[in-house]
Specification:
Layout: H1 3-13, H2 19-26, H3 30-45, E1 58-59, E2 71-72, H4 79-82, E3 129-130, E4 135-138, E5 162-167, E6 171-176, E7 185-188, E8 191-194, H5 196-211, E9 219-225, E10 231-243, E11 250-251, E12 258-265, E13 272-277, E14 288-289
Parallel strand pairs: 1-5, 2-10, 4-12, 11-14
Antiparallel strand pairs: 3-4, 5-6, 7-13, 8-10, 9-10, 12-13
Helix pairs in contact: 2-3
The protein binds S-adenosylmethionine (SAM).
S-adenosylmethionine binds near residues 170, 173, 216 and 218.
Amino acid sequence: MEEHALLECLELAMPWLNPAELATLSSTCKTLNHISKSITSARASDASRSFENLPVPFVNACDAHPYAYFHYTPSQILPFQSSLLRCQPWGSNNQNSTLPPPGRILPYTGEESGCGCESCGCECLCGGFVEGSEVMSECGPGCGCGLNCENRVTQRGVSVGLKIVRDERKGWGLHAAQFIPKGQFVCEYAGELLTTEQARRQQQMYDELSSGGRFSSALLVVREHLPSGKACLRMNIDGTRIGNVARFINHSCDGGNLLTVLVRSSGALLPRLCFFASKNIQEDEELTFSYGDIRIREKGLPCFCGSSCCFGVLPSENT
Ligand SMILES: C[S@@+](CC[C@H](N)C(=O)[O-])C[C@H]1O[C@@H](n2cnc3c(N)ncnc32)[C@H](O)[C@@H]1O
């Protein structure tokens, strides 16, 4: 094979490699080292691999980690879909421009007839908060409107400037790269939907890995409550292996600056967990929320949220 053709093949193949494989290959010769460097710099420039509207760069002024490695999905995915994402290229020059975003709710593609919601002029029950709960409903696959409908606020992906900043003690964290006004949709918490049984097994494994330091998991358990206070729906969303920018949101004991809202899309089986700004957020501010009830565990991970009401230990989910 001619040298030029070989180089083209390598440029296509190397973005499929994980950081360890990339490092091994890059140590073999100058050319591979050069390709590897360009892949590393492309990866550090956009965690979202072009799946979001704006690039989400990694910023690290404290150690040598250029980026965090995981597979990207802009929305939650079911277990059968995650097998399609076992491998995902990251870091080539024209990646993903032709790939459909994995997991994203597909809008109605037929002739738009108006879905029935207020913004489209008819009378379905989409849109707005359901009174007395942190649940919101939007148009969805069951409606006749497209992605531009005003009642699809959370379905168009991330539309505010974000960056992922490294902290010596907390690891990576999601920060605002622009002013974000109170009430603005920030992002969804995307990842693999697990059964409770699977979530328990994963959490056990993550706890073991975390106790050795250097490992961060992103398994979130969400419960939807009835007005009586009883939980009626439990969702286990794991962004550790396959996730989106929300997997970098750290905990704050004071509740942080993000509000979590369950969004139900008309015609969709399951709700999605979405983050909205709970107050005005300044550029560079870290985005945080409360991971849940603080149940002090002897072996709990230390909390470095820095808030005046910090408990000193991260909340743990009793899966
Ligand atoms: C969902 S991940 C957040 C992103 C993570 N910092 C990273 O580097 O990938 C959750 C993990 O982040 C770390 N973390 C989150 N909030 C923290 C806090 N307030 N103090 C210390 N570590 C925190 C813990 O390791 C936790 O298990």
